Amino acid sequence: MKLPEMPKMPKIKIPKNIGDLKIPPNINTKAILDYLLKTVNDLKDEFSSSSPERRMKYPYTFTAKVAQFPFKFYYKHNILFKAYPWGVAAVLPLFWYISRMSNSKSNKKTWKAIRRHHKEEARHKFDYD
Fold first, then answer.
1. Which secondary structure element, helix H or strand E, spans residue 96, and what is its range?
2. Both 67 and 112 in a single domain?
3. Is the dihedral angle over the CA atoms 108, 113, 118, 124 positive or is it negative?
4. Based on the domain organization, do 8 and 30 belong to the same domain?
5. How would you write the pLDDT of the chain (129 residues) with one tens digit per residue?
């Protein structure tokens, strides 16, 4: 692959003390941008032509299965694909509230007492005095 030739750039005088430079030098940015765009397009053409033209008969790897999955079709025709994110967003505050309440100090103390009671009960279950 042959890269396009760089366009002729005007000679720029660079001052000796760059720290005192207040006005940027006059650079032909359009020529640089055109060169970069042309190079990128040439590279796109080069690499896109080397990709396979047909799909695999059966996608063996997980990545190939994901790549061939018809997301657009499912989003368009399956209500769950549209509703799932909204449902998760709607229920998330409820899950957060339940998690916060179940992990509170008072709830942990209550369950510690309940477990202690069950342990005592199990320890004396078969005591026949």
1. helix 79-102
2. yes
3. positive
4. yes
5. 676 776 676 666 665 655 554 555 666 777 778 888 888 887 776 656 555 566 778 888 998 888 888 888 998 999 998 899 999 999 999 999 999 999 999 999 999 999 999 998 888 877 776
The range of the structural domain enclosing residue 124 comes to 57-129
128 and 102 within one domain: yes
> Tokens 């342990």 map to which residue?
119
pTM reported for the whole predicted model? 0.41
Using the CB atoms, write b or e for 105-118: b if 16+ within 10 Å.
eeeeeeeeeeeeee
Are 31 and 67 found together in one domain? no
Domain count within the chain: 2
